[in-house]
Prior knowledge:
binds S-adenosylmethionine, 47% helix, seven-stranded mixed sheet, 297 residues
Amino acid sequence: MIADRRFDFARDLQLKGDLAAAADLLLQATELAPGFASAWFTLGEIREQLGARDEAIAAFRKARDADPEDRHGASLRLMLLGAEPLSDMPTAYVRALFDQYAPRFETALVDDLGYRGPALLFKAVLSARAAIRKPAFFKRAIDLGCGTGLAATAFAKEVDHFIGIDLSPRMIERARATGLYAQLEVADMLQGLRDKPDTSADLILAADAMVYVSTLARLLREAARVLAPGGLIAFTTETHDGDGVILGEGLRYAHGAACVRAAVAEAGLALSRLDVLSARNEDNTPVPGLVVVATKP
Ligand SMILES: C[S@@+](CC[C@H](N)C(=O)[O-])C[C@H]1O[C@@H](n2cnc3c(N)ncnc32)[C@H](O)[C@@H]1O
């Protein structure tokens, strides 16, 4: 209780810009309650704002120790600070983020950030099919990180049976309300794919979902197993000029084009399209992105 009060007061001080006083109070809160993950995490943020990198790292480590599921995403802050190597996003962090975001997701993304991921995927899939003179109609599709269902909305007329997979129960609730999915699963997308039989899908989509996946190769290998011969996987990524994967300031991974190509090849898929296109804006500027379509031979 006493630690809670100090935490609340520290948040007020943080908002008012008195960072040093806020840090003092948070330290007191963590002395009273050493397992208080939110207090450690906020202390880490404030120390970072104060330019105290090493102390920030220590606080973020304490936050993660106090909450091994890492709902606050302290491990991501540690990666950004260069204190730890790049690794997967904590599942509990992604779930909490999108559960919180779900009620305002579509307004925030579509209206404020000009989100166009599903429309870009749709165009890319139509072009990939036109190039081999095949109709863009798919019997069974899987929507990875389906969110509220925007990708299924874009592909509704071209798909018979949609399965949606998402970590966030609140996002899944909204996807269910669209009535577009025959099946919805609250699951990690890699695990969801692992549960599917071989050659059981004709199309796999991931619109603005690979930005939460550090290692594409693992997911693409599983997708290759689940796709029927001739089936497609289409996804968007954020990208950067270098090679490899980086974690951006916005806590989303960005994949270099060369590592995307390598992951596609490693999974035994054939690259059908890789277009440099942006799926959303930030500060009214397009975020560099890729739209990728790969085919199971
Ligand atoms: C930015 S939203 C995009 C949603 C939707 N595809 C769209 O185009 O509007 C990303 C979604 O991916 C989900 N997600 C992130 N990582 C995931 C994972 N490892 N497994 C399943 N879903 C994940 C999030 O919960 C969120 O709903």
